[in-house]
């Protein structure tokens, strides 16, 4: 408890010192808010087989592509598969996906994701057979193979079953070996293009100003230009080494800015309010009507020697309860006041969601409302 209070006080003191609560801005390194355009990931995909399953693989009749792939693999290994039909369920057809990191060199390893294609019930205990991974250009950039790690589990009996997590998808840590590098080279570039992860004109201009200040101090002139809300171009000075230039630029501190947003997830009841959100002065009242219907049927017995029949007499109890508080005035000049005003109404998250939507409809919420 003491450690939690100390950390809370430390974060609050830092935010007050940097002005985060007052202006909604924070100080971050350029490497944390922007990425290099030539240093992006590339997606790879492949089709393969997982073998060694304990009867939890694809049914070859329901998944004919699994049998075709298995026969083709065996033929490539010099094993004849003429005649007969296999009924084994120890093989599963899978899709293998991964991201090729930037500046990856041949021989390095990357993780791959494995997902079942057929009707396999589990991939636990299986091994991915050598699978080639191709890019969007059709070229093979990596080859994957290895034991599949499945985090979930499944247990089933005749009358009950228990499942936790997903057992038809797994991961092969370090399972792919890069065989081909990307054709472009980092040092062949004539300039650097920084892409903001959260596009914003104010942040882009501040990045350009900080980089230009560094350029005037180091190289005697400005070297950066903000092209739009997402891209900042940095020209390479003639005497600069591109790798060292990028290493210096990515550690520069920039004051970031974000637009005012309120993000609402109605399914989970999650509400995220940005620091710059403002609410004009409004009056809010919230109340709910709860109706409870209870069925209590009663068994009615006939009188002795009356030759009557036993009957069920329905009985329904209906109770209505209406809750609601007084009209409250909400005005949010800053995040702390807004949150305190919403908490004073004493409603649950679903009620706060409805209130925020109503405030937005009234035109008093000075922020973008994002519904997920």
Automatic annotation (TrEMBL):
The keyword DNA-binding is annotated on this UniProt entry: no
Main location: other
Keyword Iron among record annotations: no
Molecular function (Gene Ontology), one example: structural molecule activity
Pfam (any one): FlgI
GO cellular component: bacterial-type flagellum basal body, distal rod, P ring; outer membrane-bounded periplasmic space
UniProt xrefs under InterPro entries: Flag_FlgI (IPR001782)
Any one GO BP annotation for this protein: bacterial-type flagellum-dependent cell motility
Keyword annotations from UniProtKB, A to Z: Bacterial flagellum, Cell projection, Cilium, Flagellum, Periplasm, Signal
Segment forming the signal sequence: 1-22
Subcellular location: Bacterial flagellum basal body
Its biological purpose: Assembles around the rod to form the L-ring and probably protects the motor/basal body from shearing forces during rotation.
Family: Belongs to the FlgI family.
Quaternary structure annotation from Swiss-Prot or TrEMBL: The basal body constitutes a major portion of the flagellar organelle and consists of four rings (L,P,S, and M) mounted on a central rod.
HAMAP family: FlgI
Name assigned to this protein: Flagellar P-ring protein
């Amino acid at each position: 408890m003491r450690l939690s209070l100390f950390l809370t006080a430390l974060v609050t003191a830092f935010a007050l010192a940097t002005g985060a609560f007052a202006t909604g801005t924070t100080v971050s390194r350029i490497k944390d808010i922007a990425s290099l355009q030539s240093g992006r990931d590339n997606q790879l995909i492949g089709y393969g087989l997982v073998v060694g399953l304990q009867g939890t693989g694809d049914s070859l009749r329901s998944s004919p592509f699994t049998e075709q792939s298995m026969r083709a693999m065996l033929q490539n290994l010099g094993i004849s598969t003429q005649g007969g039909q296999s009924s084994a369920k120890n093989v599963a057809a899978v899709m293998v996906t991964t991201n090729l990191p930037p500046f990856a060199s041949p021989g390095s390893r990357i993780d791959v994701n494995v997902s079942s294609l057929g009707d396999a019930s589990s991939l636990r205990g299986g091994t991915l057979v050598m699978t080639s991974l191709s890019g969007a250009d059709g070229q093979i950039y990596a080859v994957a193979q290895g034991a599949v790690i499945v985090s979930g589990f499944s247990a089933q009996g005749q009358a009950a079953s228990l499942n936790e997590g997903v057992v038809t998808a797994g991961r092969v840590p370090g399972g792919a070996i890069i065989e081909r590098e990307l054709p472009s080279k980092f040092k062949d570039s004539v300039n650097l293009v920084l892409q903001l992860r959260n596009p914003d004109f104010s942040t882009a201009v501040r990045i350009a100003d900080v980089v230009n200040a560094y350029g005037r101090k180091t190289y005697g002139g400005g070297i950066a230009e903000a092209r739009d809300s997402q891209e900042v171009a940095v020209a390479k000075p003639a005497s600069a080494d591109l790798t060292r230039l990028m290493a210096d630029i990515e550690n520069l501190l920039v004051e970031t800015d974000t637009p005012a947003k309120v993000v609402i997830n109605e399914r989970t009841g999650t509400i995220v309010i940005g620091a710059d959100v403002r609410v004009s002065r409004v009056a809010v009242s919230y109340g709910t009507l709860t109706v409870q219907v209870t069925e209590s049927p009663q068994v009615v017995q006939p009188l002795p020697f009356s030759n009557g029949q036993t009957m069920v007499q329905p009985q329904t109890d209906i109770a209505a309860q209406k809750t609601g508080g007084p009209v409250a005035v909400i005005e949010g000049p800053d995040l702390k006041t807004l949150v305190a005003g919403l908490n004073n109404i004493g409603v649950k998250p679903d009620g706060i969601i409805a209130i925020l939507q109503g405030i937005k409809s009234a035109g008093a919420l000075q922020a973008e409302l994002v519904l997920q």
